[in-house]
Amino acid sequence: MNKLAVASVIVDVPTMQTNRPFEYEIPSALTDVVIPGVRVEVGFGRGKRKIQGFVMEVKKTSDFTGKLKPIIRVIDVKPVLSSEMIKLSYWLADRTYSFQISCLQTMLPNVMRAKYKQFIQAAPGFEQDPEVQQLLNGHLLVELTNDTTDEKIKEIAHLKRSEKINIEYVVENQANSLTRQAVTTELSKDALLKSREGLRKNALAQQKLYDYLIKEYDNLPVESSVIEKQNDIARSTLKTAEKNGAVKFVEITKRRKPVGIIPEQQKAPTLTDEQSEAVSKINSAIDSNDPKTFLIEGVTGSGKTEVYLQTMQQALNQGKTALMLVPEISLTPQMVNRVVGRFGDQVAVLHSGLSSGERYDEWSRIEDGSVKVVVGARSAVFAPLKNIGIIIIDEEHEASYKQDDNPRYHARDVASWRSKFHKEPLVLGSATPSLESRARAEKGVYQMISMKKRINDHPLPHVQIVDMRDAENSAVKGDFSPLLKDNIWRAMKRNEQAIVLLNRRGYSSFLMCRECGFVLKCPNCDVSLTYHKNLGKMKCHYCGHEEPVPHICPNCKSKKIGFYGTGTENIENQLNEMFPEARVLRMDVDTTRRKGSHAAIIKQFGEHQADILLGTQMIAKGLDFPDVTLVGVINADTTLSISDYRASERTFQLLTQVSGRAGRADKEGHVIIQTYNPDHYAIKDAAKQDYETFFKQEMYLRHQSGYTPYYFTTLVSVSHQDEGQALKQSFWLKKQLQAVLSDQAVLLGPSPTMISRKQNKYFYQIIVKYKRGPELHQRLLEILSETQSETKRGFTIAIDNEPQHID
DNA sequence: AGCACGCCGACT
DNA sequence: GTCGGCGTGCTC
């Protein structure tokens, strides 16, 4: 009998050199337990280091010529990775040029990441050694933490060299954190009552505990922490009761269920013609296991969400599951209630507000099949659903679907992969599709579904563009044109609400001297410091460096140093000055930092407890406020000035979306867009809510300049402490790439990134535009492994496939 | 990553 | 000589 005795393991060491499977012997005691997808603990390296790894494959023999180490321990009882996820991780690592271990870790809840600890222990026979005793200070084990001083490390290294101490490695599994200590009783309720009577008169704490146990008898076991904190019963009281046989300590696995109240079950409304046509097209793809991609181009208010819900229902009817992605920012209670209202408690919602424990619990509920519908932001695309019947991506153009650190994956690509794996449709929906998706629909790669009518024939808002270069407008002191000011006033008078959007990208409150032009910059990074009001300090967004606000210019000693640029706070002040009676709510990064505050602001505004909602991009997304009749955009063009080929697309999308916020109910909406570029097509087309015209114009320009969707783009950046070295290396890289690319491909750069210095490293980037690039892909992978030794000398190479921003 | 090995200078 | 500095290369 030939046993499967070798496991192929991806180890938790994120480096290029260890980015491949390592083989381990499966001890006979662990056969049948070590199967693909489980996590294991293995020894790695020459020392006694222990780390976590993922079993990818189990086989009979190994080609490895050395001696295989055994697997030390199996962490999971059942696999945490399905065969689908294992396959997906290979594809993802290849596509994003990332380490496979990083991919595996992103696919799983954070708690599955191992925590490593090191403990110092006296070597046998050296327990009494004075040096060892001094180090351990009477303890048997001392943890070696990250904050150990250099001197102490030296001392430890000494002792280790002379073999007086050993270092013990411990791999901790954080996912265990969900078992908690709880209290219960083995006594009957009557017995408890009896014991309660038998307590001494002055044993007040015990009496209180018994009373609690009797009252909560049906809810036992209760977590000890709950009893201790909420009911102020001391641990010693519990211990005493334990001794007396009244209570018993047990371990419970607690499932936090974040979706608290399940809203009333809602019936599916009748569909419009456009909606039912969309539903039937998608449903037939579900029925016939057709992994095609649909692109729903539907104007705001056309009822895309209902199409999503009914097609998801179809998948469920077939005994399948459904996955729906929405941008984090639209994961509002309104949205969630709508889905939960339809599907009840078979829904799991994965949003960033979940604690890591909650996230793990939701993951388990999905994994064990108790959840049929998953709604979530980007990372929910890895939800461990089995037998997926449909995948939906709402607002598919959103840049936040692309992760901006490693692995730099796009949720749309992962969804597409899974759609093919499950042989089920993928539905992309947007009022303003990304150029690449819309172009694919044009070519017939995606099937286009267009929804042009608004439900109940709500008219589109009336949009006006205000040319801020006009004499009348440039003369005003603040940032409000007379027209916008007047319209806000009117809306206030009619007791309606207004939204004011400040397009603040690349625009912030930095400090500038009006005498000499000096700008306060970060000493480590090449960016200006921004003012943080709650800190009262200047802060760097990249490295976190802080310093006090100077009152005289460090350069010319003038006192004319002050803030420059329009921040939300500044606009808020202007609004308060102009409309002293209006209640202004501000929503930006500062006011929404606290968990739940985003939802709180939306709720407050939705209940008309404020008159004006002022904010940045985040107010533009999918919110429905019936009393809003006016939307004002202060500076429509700041996103245009960014040196990014997607600048026009982003501007168009933002303006179209925010305009959709006005007048969704019976009242007509009015939108005022202030700009210095009134003739720009992105602004003009957005004002007309005319996606198709914009699409044609933008496609023409992309074609002219050779960008997505006509070309693929890959961004390669090189960094080093020394600017010259970084530049030298990037020229070398360019030469390497040139050699494998055809004449059709274009290489731009190397050029310094917009922020050319971050954390004291210099960054240069090369943009590669190409039509067909298997050679490029191969060469980039090779370069990554060839340059691994350079990595240690301070070089880093980062590759971003289809970047969302070039900066 | 983290560790051992190994090759150099300056110390009992 | 040898201790300990850091550079190099390997980990099943």
From TrEMBL:
Keywords: ATP-binding, DNA replication, DNA-binding, Helicase, Hydrolase, Isomerase, Metal-binding, Nucleotide-binding, Primosome, Zinc. GO terms for biological process: DNA recombination; DNA replication initiation; DNA replication, synthesis of primer; double-strand break repair. SMART domains: DEXDc, HELICc. It is an enzyme of class 5 (isomerase). Zn(2+) 1 binds at C513, C516, C553, C556. Transmembrane segments: none annotated. Its EC number is 5.6.2.4. It comes from the Bacteria. SUPFAM superfamilies: P-loop containing nucleoside triphosphate hydrolases. Its cofactor is Zn(2+). Residues 548-702 form the Helicase C-terminal domain. Binds 2 zinc ions per subunit. One of its GO terms (cellular component) is primosome complex. Belongs to the helicase family. PriA subfamily. Component of the replication restart primosome. Initiates the restart of stalled replication forks, which reloads the replicative helicase on sites other than the origin of replication. Recognizes and binds to abandoned replication forks and remodels them to uncover a helicase loading site. Promotes assembly of the primosome at these replication forks. NCBIfam families: priA, PRK05580.1-3. This is Replication restart protein PriA. It comes from Companilactobacillus versmoldensis DSM 14857 = KCTC 3814.
